[in-house]
Amino acid sequence: MGVESKIAGDMQPDIDVAIIGAGLSGIGMAAHMQMLCPDRSFALFERRANLGGTWDLFRYPGVRSDSDMHTLGFVFEPWKHEKSIADGPAILEYLNRIVDERDIRRHIRLGTKVVSADWNSAAAHWVITTESPDGQHSRTTARFLYLGAGYYDYDKPYDAQIPGLADFAGTVLHPQFWPKDSAHAGKRVVVIGSGATAVTIVPVMAETAAHVTMLQRTPTWYAVRPARDAIANALRKFLPAKLAYWITRYKNVKMQDMVYKRARAAPEKARAYLTDKIKAALGPKYDEAAFTPPYNPWEQRLCLVPDGDLFAAMKAGKADVVTDHIARIDAAGIQLTSGRRLDCDVIVTATGLTMTIAGKIALSVDGERIDFNQHYYYKGCMYSNLPNLAQVFGYLNASWTLRADIDSDFICRLLNHMKAIGADVATPFLAEDHDLVEDPDTGLSSGYIQRGQALQPKNAPTMPWRLNQDYVFDKVWLKQNPLDDGIMRFTKAQAAATHGEVREAAE
What we know:
Layout: H1 3-9, E1 15-20, H2 24-36, E2 42-46, H3 54-57, H4 69-72, H5 88-101, E3 108-110, E4 113-120, E5 125-131, E6 137-147, E7 171-173, E8 188-192, H6 196-205, E9 211-216, E10 222-225, H7 230-238, H8 241-265, H9 267-282, E11 303-306, H10 309-315, E12 319-323, E13 326-329, E14 333-336, E15 341-343, E16 346-349, E17 362-365, E18 368-369, E19 377-378, E20 382-383, E21 389-391, H11 400-421, E22 425-428, H12 447-451, H13 471-480, E23 488-491
Parallel strand pairs: 1-2, 1-6, 2-3, 4-17, 6-21, 7-16, 8-9, 8-16, 9-12, 10-11
Antiparallel strand pairs: 4-5, 5-6, 13-14, 14-15, 17-18, 19-20, 22-23
């Protein structure tokens, strides 16, 4: 067989779209494809033995959403539970119900790790290498690659290099690898950290522990809100579920947007408001040093405290917050730089995540490794000069799924446009001599974001070469901005290597 006929034989890929990850992002894309691209084939590649992504991985006490489920839920599937701040099992139940009711489960390849994906320009498809649990490698080809594997390393959480941790004679737990048989009842617990994970763990462990201390280097801004959305629950009693969900989702999106923008525009007012809420929740237990961060609200992500559970545990004497630095950990506990000691039986290292990119898959184009830091975001989900590739990176100031929904919608419309004009490849083209100025400001100063900045694609100050942090704007802009915007280049497979463009049928 000659080279030309071999390439022609490879022109038809095994599937149209390879979706990496079977968490919120991947399941959302699969559902959108069924609704908007029913004639296209797809498969979800999930390295874990179960679907759910984040919600299957994290099993620490009290694991829950850090935003309301009317916005963390999908636009197409109402959230019907009584609690809008939901625990991990409830979210897994929601995702499992969706994949079963929509017949998505048969498209999910569990226990299938994507090792690499190489774009073949001549054949205009991705060559994907996967690995099974027994180490066997297989190859799949796909026309389009959709990355929904999240933004943090599942294997290696952030190592804060805590001095002396190995000398501790008690139990050391990390939220990312919580054992099924962990026991803390009646024990003294120190949770190191003050982010969303620590704030979730402390009140739940305090229910049975002798005492729980949250040890923080820097205070965090907290927002107290009910775990149940009274308006949502009332609406469901009188309206169809989808309509009630739509109204609640609209309300919550607008509220999130307003709160974020007001906090950034008037930080002193936001500081005063949040401080007053914490003072009211804690009463005489309020400690200014523990609850006055050195940064303004929403310069880092606001931590949610549903029903004020953390503060209730503190008022009951079951938990406290200590603001200090660790000098060293020894066999019996933690020595702080102030001279204070925290003797304990259990240490929980809720010290953060390690960011990664593209699920740590080795991505390349014609064998040449892709360095995402050398590419610009395009419309928040594709990248400059990378063909048939999209990735979900959710909002830092709102629910992850808001971004996943609009990305899925955009890519499905793009796939339909490609089919209508006879194109095999869509590439956001950026000339080498472009005059874009990089905008490194993500809008948040959180440690994990700053640590992972060097891995991330570039941002320009304005769309389309940007990952924006404004869902209200993005949703409208993505719908109104044309798919054929003069930037996206559409090509046929046989012309892909030379960027031969496909013109609209009308032309």
